[in-house]
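pinned: reference chain
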Amino acid sequence: MVRFAFLLSLLLPAFAASADTLDLYAGRYLGCAVSGGELVPIETTLVATVDGLAGKYVFIESTGRRIAGAITPTDPQSADTVAVIWSDVYGEGPAVFTFADDASRFDGYWMSGGGTDRFSWNGVRSGSGKRPPDCRVPVS
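pinned: its structure tokens
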């Protein structure tokens, strides 16, 4: 019984550190994502939950149409890289975000549900003092 308590005391800080890291990533990010072959502005809002990082996003198509979506947690989630599932009117699939050490930005990608192509998705934390990316740059 003493061994179990000792092992448990070693494991609990690891879980707490993971939750603290996800709390660090929570916030509103302004950035760009590839959609329909073009770079579009996207606002990504992330929250830390007991299951992992979750949230929502809104991107604006070139026609001006606003597309809202949801972000749900999935595995794996490590110190600076978080995997999630995106979903909106176009479908759903995996996305991976890699955060800067200070969580002021993330660079990542999304994929369609059954596809293998990766499409850019990034964001700069609102209020971080850093300039959001320019979504007018053409996709090559």
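why pinned: The radius of gyration is 17 Å. Helices lie at 2-25.
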